[in-house]
Specification:
2 strands; 68 residues; two-stranded antiparallel ribbon; 3 helices; elongated
Length: 68
């Protein structure tokens, strides 16, 4: 969501509850997101972890033995 809605107000409008903002702050503490001029940006580490999570989820989905 940070990638699509980098501005905190846009995030708040989209989420409607404070859980997303708390999650973004948690990601910020872990070094995956950085606030720059009132916008959130993914760090290089955040982009790499996002790409890795996507690749793993696709791999698990393809390895699922249940036919779709």
């Amino acid at each position: 969501m940070v990638f699509r809605y980098p501005h905190p107000k846009a995030l708040a409008r989209k989420a409607q509850n404070g859980a997303v903002i708390a999650g973004v702050r948690s990601l910020e503490r872990r070094g995956l997101v950085k606030r720059y001029r009132d916008h959130y940006r993914l760090t290089r580490r955040g982009r790499n972890e996002l790409a890795m999570a996507l690749a793993i989820s696709q791999l698990v989905w393809r390895a699922d033995p249940v036919p779709r």
